[in-house]
Amino acid sequence: MSERLTPEQVELRDAVRELARERIAPRAAEIDERAEFPRDVVELFARHDVFALGYPAEYGGLGEPLLTNCLMIEEVSRVCATSGLILAVQALGSLPLLLAGSEEQKRRWIPGLASGELLDAFALTEAGAGSDPAGIRTRAVRDGDGWRIDGTKRFISHGSVADLVAVFAVTDPGAGRHRDLSCFYVERGTPGFEVARLEHKMGIRGSPTAELVFDGARVPDANRVGEVGEGFRIAMRTLDRSRPGVAAQAVGIAQGATDVAVAYARDRVQFGKPIGEQQMVQAMLADMATRTEAARQLLYAACDRIERGDGDASRWAAMCKLFAGDTAMAVTTDAVQVLGGYGYITEYPVERMMRDAKITQLYEGTQQIQRLVVARALLSAQ
Ligand SMILES: Cc1cc2nc3c(=O)[nH]c(=O)nc-3n(C[C@H](O)[C@H](O)[C@H](O)COP(=O)(O)OP(=O)(O)OC[C@H]3O[C@@H](n4cnc5c(N)ncnc54)[C@H](O)[C@@H]3O)c2cc1C
Questions:
Q1: ∠ CA(296), CA(300), CA(303), 5° rounding?
Q2: DSSP designation for 223
Q3: Which domains are assigned to the chain?
């Protein structure tokens, strides 16, 4: 399991595994039940420099590669998918800044993001623009030395708790499908920017999913990231580096469910012996472990490829998210089966894990969209 990891990565992974087991696992059921954003987990990550890992050292980060961040998301999601998502969203929301921000913008915001003092979010989706960003209607219009933003973003993870939201808005409606969007960071407290509502969800219930309204919200030009018209490209490049984070969340959920199922199969006695001695139960456990390990190895390989910048990042990001998301759904469903009726009640964590797994097949592009990305890359390759 550790062949691809450096000794430092193994050490970091083990440290976060312990932190997650001791400090986050005991909170997971409560976070889910109360659907409350776990501020204590944010503080825990900040105190242990977990946020800092993925940011460049020159801006207060620890300069670790994508794989290290994914290891952290995996370990935390193994016990609590909502908490794992805190790390994934922080990475997602800051990717436009890292990929296209100016030196001044990076110096302004990255130290706060790396220390955990600032939280961010990524706002692409709208009611009429989910899988297809061409449906985006949020408009940004030049207004003196800044921009006026009008529109509504839907399903924005951490939208209600973020200090900084990367908002994608149409700046030039006539420019054509991939050149009409630009990206702006809108700061919390900007007049005209409001949280309209929070969604009630099946899973990742402690992660606030917000509808954000921009009603004449004015942002200075200094908050525009990248060139005017570069928004679509920034969003797609962001997803190439953030989808592995969703895959890591999925691998963690699958591993967590396997852990619980194995322990239960050892202890639960029916027909005079542990159910783990029944071959049909053994087959389920073997398939769960095999699928989870296969998803993990594909994720780690994808991180290497993406980090190397070998030009095929979109395909690898989509493949690992696709395979890991489907794995998490299948493995958690089997985990519920291994626990029988006890798998279906909230006394055991596998029903929560099954509910949490579903989102990994939906966000940052549904599984159908991942298949489209993979197939297009295959068919266009020379
Ligand atoms: C809890 C949660 C958190 C989220 N967080 C964020 C966030 O932080 N930031 C953000 O910007 N967005 C976020 N999203 C939005 C998420 O990325 C979208 O919901 C997702 O991309 C799908 O869009 P949609 O829901 O509009 O579905 P639709 O696009 O309407 O799709 C409906 C169905 O049609 C299928 N479909 C659509 N087009 C095609 C096609 N061309 N070929 C085949 N099948 C197709 C889809 O696969 C799906 O099965 C979040 C969503 C949820 C539920």
A1: 140
A2: G
A3: 7-118 (1.10.540.10), 121-228 (2.40.110.10), 232-380 (1.20.140.10)
Supply 30's token pair.
């409560």
Return the sign of the alpha-carbon dihedral for residues 66, 67, 69, 70.
positive
Residue 220 has φ and ψ, to the nearest 5°, of: -70, 155
> Which tens digits make up the pLDDT trace of 74-128?
999 999 999 999 999 999 999 999 999 999 999 999 999 999 999 999 999 999 9
Residue 2: its pLDDT value, please?
57
**CA-proximal residue: ligand 1, atom 31 (nearest):** 131
* Per-residue tokens: 314: 């979109």
Task: Tell me the best of 366, 367, 370, 376 to mutate to test the pocket of ligand 1, counting ligand atoms within 8 Å of each CB and taking the most.
Answer: 366
Among 15, 22, 25, 9, smallest CA distance to 349 is for 25
Burial 160-176 (b: 16+ CB within 10 A, else e): bbbbbbbbbbbbeeeee
Which residues participate in catalysis according to the annotation? 364
Name residues contacting ligand 1 (CB within 6 A): 121-125, 130-131, 155-157, 201, 209, 359, 362-366, 368-369, 372
Cα–Cα distance for residue pair 77/349, rounded to 1 Å: 12
Tell me which amino acid residue 36 is: E
Candidate of 82, 94, 126, 155 to mutate for ligand 1, largest count of ligand atoms within 8 Å of Cβ: 155
Rounded CA-CA distance 188/65 in Å is 29
Q: Which residues, including other chains, have CB under 8 Å from residue 277's CB and lie 6 or more apart?
A: none
Ligand 1: distance of its center to the CA of 223 in Å?
27
